[in-house]
Amino acid sequence: MLKVSEILRVKGHTLYTATPDTSIALAIETMSEQDIGSLVIMEHGELAGMLTFREIIQHLHRNRGVVGTYTIRSIMNDAPISVTPNTSADEVQRLMLDKHVRYMPVMDGPTLHGVISFYDMAQAIVAAQQFENTMLKAYIRDWPGGDQSDVQAAE
């Protein structure tokens, strides 16, 4: 069974963080430049929240497109749902769908290990399915090699 720790190992552990007192304008700049959909918000070395493009869009909508002098603290999710490195990929999928979240911090006690995104999950699922497909084809004797003539001969 695929675990979060395995997904992080493939993905890497690069994290983009900010503090709650960072301006929203700087958060938008960072997210745009790094082409990321979330920032982990840290305060005093601990997870304080998550900021995603969803909170930014909601802020812009409420303020008629004006960022203003607001800080991340005013719009961040200060109680993000998190998972552990031992959480199964199936459970992460269920939580993401049930709770309508696209980014989840991975915590081991108070230690932040990374963030799992909806994209990371999709990528892991496709890779696992491709591996399983390859293994099944190898198991079945005389599996057609993909050549159209072989497929027709097998039918």
Question: Can you describe this structure?
Answer:
The chain is of the alpha+beta class and 155 residues long. The chain has a single domain (4-140), classed as CBS-domain (Roll). It is 45% helix and 18% strand. The chain contains six helices and five strands; from the N terminus they run H-E-H-E-E-H-H-E-E-H-H. It has helices at 4-11, 24-34, 53-62, 89-99, 118-139, 148-154; strands spanning 17-18, 38-43, 46-52, 103-108, 111-117. Strands 1-2-3 form a three-stranded mixed beta sheet. The chain has a two-stranded antiparallel ribbon with strand order 4-5. Helix 2 links the parallel strand 1 and strand 2 (38-43). The radius of gyration is 21 Å and the shape is elongated. The two termini are 34 Å apart. 20% of the residues are buried.
Report the total helices.
6
- The percent of residues in helical segments reads 40-55%
Beta-strand share of residues:
15-25%
Task: Determine the mean pLDDT.
Answer: 88
Distance between the terminal alpha carbons, to the nearest Å?
A: 34 Å
Name the CATH class.
Alpha Beta
Q: Structural class, from helix and strand content?
A: alpha+beta
Strand tally: 5
Low-confidence stretches: none
What is the CATH topology descriptor?
A: CBS-domain
Instruction: Identify the strand order in the major beta sheet.
Output: 1-2-3
SSE map:
Blueprint: H1 4-11, E1 17-18, H2 24-34, E2 38-43, E3 46-52, H3 53-62, H4 89-99, E4 103-108, E5 111-117, H5 118-139, H6 148-154
Parallel strand pairs: 1-2
Antiparallel strand pairs: 2-3, 4-5
